[in-house]
Amino acid sequence: xxxSPKSVAxxxxxxxxxxxxTAEDYVEAVDDIVTATGQCRVVDLTRHFGVSHVTVTRIxxxxxxxxxxxxxxxxxxxxxxxxxxxxxxSRKRHQTVYDLLLALGVSxxxxxxxxxxxxxxxxxxxxxxxxxxxxxSAPRTDGST
Amino acid sequence: xxxSPKSVAxxxxxxxxxxxxTAEDYVEAVDDIVTATGQCRVVDLTRHFGVSHVTVTRIxxxxxxxxxxxxxxxxxxxxxxxxxxxxxxSRKRHQTVYDLLLALGVSxxxxxxxxxxxxxxxxxxxxxxxxxxxxxSAPRTDGST
DNA sequence: CACAATTTGTAGCCTGTGCTACAAGGAAAA
DNA sequence: TTTTCCTTGTAGCACAGGCTACAAATTGTG
Lengths: 145, 145
Known about the structure:
Chain A is mainly α. Chain A has six helices and two strands. The first copy, chain A, has two domains: 5-82, Winged helix-like DNA-binding domain superfamily/Winged helix DNA-binding domain (Arc Repressor Mutant, subunit A, Orthogonal Bundle), CATH 1.10.10.10; 88-137, Orthogonal Bundle (Diphtheria Toxin Repressor, domain 2). Chain A has a two-stranded antiparallel ribbon. In chain A, strand 1 (69-70) and strand 2 (78-79) form a beta hairpin. Chain A binds a DNA duplex through helix 1, helix 2 and helix 3.
């Protein structure tokens, strides 16, 4: 019983998540950029993530193939409904994690960085617990920013 | 200013972390297995992570190359001092994250799963905040396990 | 319009992590 | 001891996500 099936399941989950993390980051970014500037181009994502345009193109291709994005050659990148849904969920998780970190006393700068990494690993149940904590124990419901 | 350097820095950090996450998982596992059974073999890691022995072998090779592990053909896998240090840090982060999730009301099962993913993204500052919260707000200082 | 600059695409290479299939070493049992 | 079984290694494949270099399309300017 030394190598429990539980630990196996945990790690398998972790591994499978990596490409999903990228998907979440990209749909969030596309959503941000579309909201901010009206459209999202490859070059915008290149600047956002600090990677080459080739990397962006290939990841966008995969996300098109998987139904999160849609685009055509030399055209802007758009979210599908599936992508929009994922973006909304990701943003919510991100915001909740960020708020939790702030509530626990983490600085804004570090909270921003850590939330980027943590958000992808927060399950529904954990998210609910975070929200409950923020409601009951962090009565900072308005403009303290 | 729409594509701030800050977001770039965050994502670059996230990307670079992936191989480090694997390193942390492996040194923790090796440490666990050595403690539990006296030695760690490839087959133990194979069972622990639920991946093929080939994958384990290759990752172990990389971690030997990077100075976290040492081994010889058909011999057990051992931690270097560097690996032991990393294992200790990882374990501490893992435990703190796990405890925080429990303190916020997450079930043990889900806390175990989520902590696996979250632990790799918790900075020193955030970890301190977690510890402070656990000390001040979760007076469960002894054997509740 | 024509040229220049920017953007996007494509070819080709690297590393990391996953796999199966097969070969070889080491340990246990007949 | 020999045979069998478990463990480990190696070859070779796939995919994700990094890159540079070069080509093509689009956009902007003279």
